[in-house]
Each structure stands twice: as C-alpha cells, then as structure tokens.
Design brief:
- This protein has one domain.
- It is 56% helix and 15% strand.
- Strands 1, 2, 3, 4, 5 and 6 form a six-stranded antiparallel β-sheet that branches.
C-alpha cells in the first residue's frame, strides 16, 4: 500500500544553509527578492537572482536544486513502493525528470515584504497542484494488481536477477502512469503563507519549517489550516 504521509515527510527536507543570505540596507526589497530567488532556484532551476542574493556560484545553486529534486524523488520512491536499489540508471533518470517536471509546474507568487513592528514578513501565495490526487486511483490499482497473474510456483523459482527485473518492470510501469498525469495537473484555490524573516548577526533567512510548508503546499500535500 502506498504511504502518503511518509512520502510527505521525505519530501520536506532542506538544509538551513540554502535559506540564508547577508543583510542589506534596503531590507524590504531585499527580502522579497531573496524569497523569489530562492523559490525560483528550488522549483524552476532559475538561478540568477539566487546567485546574486547569496553570492553563490552556479555549481552551488545547481547542487541545491539537485538536492531538492532528489528529496522529492526519495519521497516518490517511498510513496509508490519503488525499490531504488533495483533501478537501472535510465529509470533513476526518469524519476528525476518526473520530479523536475512537477516542481517546474509550481504555481506561486511572492508578494512585497511588509513590516510589522521590528519584524518583516514575506507572503507567498501558492496554488496547490492536484497531481497526487488525480493520479492516485490508477497508481493504486496498478500497485495492487501488479504481479497478480504470476503463480506461487513461478515466484518460488525466481532468482535474484528475476526479482530485480520484476521490480524494474513495476517501476517502469508506475513511471509511465505518473508521467501521463503531469500534463493534466490543475490547481486549487490560493493559499497565502506568512514567512517571517529571521535576522541574526547580519545574516537573514527564513525558518526551515516555512520553506517546508511552501514545498508541501506547492505539491498539494497539505490541507489549508
């Protein structure tokens, strides 16, 4: 059975080092630009603003993006019971391409930073995608029925290579199903999230949990509170 909650947890991982930058005198615009650059880098592989705001190299920005994609891939593996150790390089690439295609469809708007007392906030409006909802029935039916036409005697005769091939065929079929729903994605109502700027020792950033929430809302993994 596919484990939705574990998948959501696996997707919500990011190191703090990717969510901080040096402070600036034009605080409001700086915070807005930073959030825009961070999300564009994470979801769209658009690195220019993020590199400028954080003084990162393109390789460093690419590494952050790749890490985000791999965390999503790990969540997909767990959710759909994909045995990563059995996958071919081609299948691994296929699931990474799926993750990139999903995040490329992220729908978010970064609003101008506002000040409340001594604190700044950046509101991000997200339209959650319905990918995991619309693909659920077909993916669940496939997972439930896969291998049902194979007899117990045939299973008993399987070698390690046979089991690897069995897992690869399952992963390939699941990938085909999931890819077929990417173009069918639609979006829910806008969810607005306040993200507080945290400033310490002239370095600013956002709380990890706020970035995790944006990830989850983008993917449609969290109901509005």
């Amino acid at each position: 059975m596919m484990n939705y909650k574990k998948a959501a947890a696996a997707m919500a991982i990011l190191c703090m080092g990717a969510t901080t930058a040096c402070s600036s005198s034009n605080e409001g615009k700086t915070y807005t630009d930073y959030m825009q650059g961070l999300l564009d880098a994470r979801f769209k592989a658009k690195f220019a603003t993020y590199m400028r705001m954080t003084e990162s190299t393109e390789d460093e920005a690419q590494e952050m993006y790749d890490d985000v994609m791999l965390y999503l891939v790990d969540g997909i593996y767990e959710y759909y019971q994909i045995e990563e150790d059995c996958l071919t390089a081609e299948l691994e690439d296929g699931y990474q391409d799926l993750a990139a295609a999903l995040y490329a469809k992220a729908d978010y708007t970064v609003n101008d930073a506002t000040k409340d007392g001594d604190d700044y906030y950046v509101v991000v409006d997200v339209k959650p995608m319905d990918f995991f909802d619309i693909s659920y029935d077909e993916a669940a039916e496939y997972a439930e029925n896969y291998g049902s036409d194979i007899s117990d005697e045939e299973y008993d005769s399987y070698t390690d290579d046979d089991w690897d091939k069995w897992e690869q065929d399952y992963a390939e079929g699941m990938l085909e199903i999931l890819n077929s729903y990417v173009s069918k994605i639609s979006y829910g109502e806008v969810i607005s999230m306040d993200n507080k700027i945290v400033v310490e020792d002239d370095v600013y950033g956002f709380e990890d949990e706020d970035i995790f929430k944006i990830d989850d809302y983008v993917l449609g993994l969290t109901e509005e509170e």
